[in-house]
Specification:
Elements lengths: L2 H5 L16 H7 L2 H12 L2 H18 L9 H17 L8 H4 L24 H4 L6 H9 L3 H7 L4 H12 L4 H8 L3 H18 L13 H16 L2 H7 E8 L6 E3 L1 H9 L9 E7 L2 E7 L5 E10 L2 E8 L2 H7 L18
Parallel strand pairs: 1-6
Antiparallel strand pairs: 1-2, 3-4, 4-5, 5-6
Length: 346
């Protein structure tokens, strides 16, 4: 769905909702769009599928609003609809993944290969599409951590109903009885599903966001400035200083990924030399710092999502579907368009 289509909101269903209430109900439904998009993104692993799922949720809610009897809260009712939409979408579909979930790291000399279909990959999502702009700081921190690409990848390992249970219980802090009512199940069944989901996540090495990091501090901001400066100047010595020894580089839709600073730098000096002269424009994605990368000719190349730890950059996650992703992030399809400027100049 295009950004313009998604922005039409519930009004797109107005003609279908014969006899549905006007005005205030639309505002009440739309007030939940951001959190529902975050929920559907965690379930589906795609910002575009999440927006489609929320749009379908809003359409169904609009059509049924005059029959909503208020036995449950409006929020619970919308989550029930969204869960059913997501479960329907997940029937028979293969799980989305990151390149490192599918194969061992590649060598620098490995051919880049042919890009795999979009449905193969977990995609990035702009923070503003899925995170509330205000709220309890602790809840906001958990929400931000629970959209990390690694955590979204771990969620995809779960059976769809287990996925819903874990997100509702451990990310959104619903009670077991609330989840059981939403799923039309029992508390015992919900607790059993949660136990199995936790075991699967533990085996994958990732867990729900119960130890979210603080917002970027001065040292982390300084590290990002050093990274941007080094990358835009394509200074390999400066990049050596900011990249962690065990850092990774991935580039969906290609399955190729690299592990280790030495291989990343060697790749940049060789197959990746086209990145020389790039401009980086700051955005926020998946609760992490990110950049829209434009090549020297001003054309978009990637959305980079950056992971940091211990004062170094630990992951460069580049998503190359620029035709869809740059509009999603509000970025023009040419550097300098609409007043966009580089991160180093901001």
């Amino acid at each position: 769905m295009s950004e313009a289509a998604a922005g039409d909101g519930v009004a797109a269903a107005e003609g279908a909702g014969r006899g549905a209430p006007q005005g205030e109900p639309v505002d009440r439904l739309e007030a939940h769009r951001t959190e529902l998009t975050g929920y559907c993104y965690r379930m589906l692993g795609s910002a575009f599928e999440a927006e489609d799922a929320v749009q379908e949720t809003m359409v169904r809610a609009w059509r049924s609003y005059d029959r909503f009897e208020g036995r449950a809260s409006l929020r619970s009712w919308l989550y029930r609809i969204a869960t059913n939409v997501c479960l329907d979408l997940l029937k028979g579909s293969r799980r989305r993944a990151r390149p490192m979930d599918l194969a061992s790291p590649s060598s620098v000399d490995s051919p880049i290969g042919t890009g795999l279909p979009e449905a193969t990959w977990i995609g990035p999502v702009p923070d503003q599409r899925v995170l509330a702009s205000a709220g309890d700081p602790a809840e906001t921190a958990v929400a931000r951590e629970s959209i990390r690409l690694a955590f979204i990848s771990a969620l995809q390992r779960l059976a769809p109903r287990q996925r819903a249970v874990l997100i509702l219980r451990e990310v959104l802090s619903w009670s077991a009885s609330e989840v059981a009512e939403l799923l039309g199940s029992s508390v015992a069944s919900v607790n059993s599903a949660l136990q199995r989901a936790r075991a699967t996540l533990a085996a994958s090495g990732d867990h729900a966001a119960d130890a979210a990091p603080p917002p970027l501090d001065d040292a982390q901001q300084a590290l990002l400035r050093r990274y941007v400066d080094a990358f835009e100047r394509f200074d390999m010595d400066a990049l050596t200083a900011v990249l962690h020894e065990d850092s990774t580089l991935s580039m969906p839709p290609y399955a190729l990924w690299l592990h280790g600073r030495a291989d990343i730098l060697k790749w940049l000096r060789g197959p990746g030399e086209g990145c020389a002269g790039s401009h980086l424009v700051p955005v926020r994605a998946n609760g992490r710092p990110a950049f829209g990368q434009y090549r020297a000719d001003g054309l978009p190349w990637a959305i980079q999502v950056i992971e940091t730890a211990g004062g170094r950059v630990t992951a460069l996650q580049s998503f190359l579907d620029t035709e869809r992703l740059f509009p999603l992030f509000g970025l023009p399809l040419r550097y300098g368009g609409d007043g966009v400027s580089s991160a180093s100049a901001s």
